[in-house]
Predict the structure of Response regulator.
Amino acid sequence: MPRILLAEDDDSLRGFLSRALERAGYDVTACADGEEAAAVLDQDWDLLLTDIVMPGMDGIEVARLAAARHPGLRIMFITGFAAVALAAGESAPPGAKVLSKPIHLREIVTEVERMMAAA
């Protein structure tokens, strides 16, 4: 079962995303912030799905750490800040995808499925 590391500081969104991805057949580990996600990066992951703007360690920092430890790891960002989404492409690891909030759960699941299929 593909493993997803989810980092999202919004409790309700984190819960919705976790449940939607689990129903789609993924094993999801949900973290409330970047530090919590960074603490489990040594495990094997198929995809990092992270908010960009979080208190403490942001999603870009988590993604850089993850990419350094797991070259080829699929990375997807979700953000409610359009300007951040535009800038993220410059500082994010190569191949990372950026989705802007608000976004429908079905759209996130579809994008995750696309990324997982593109091996």
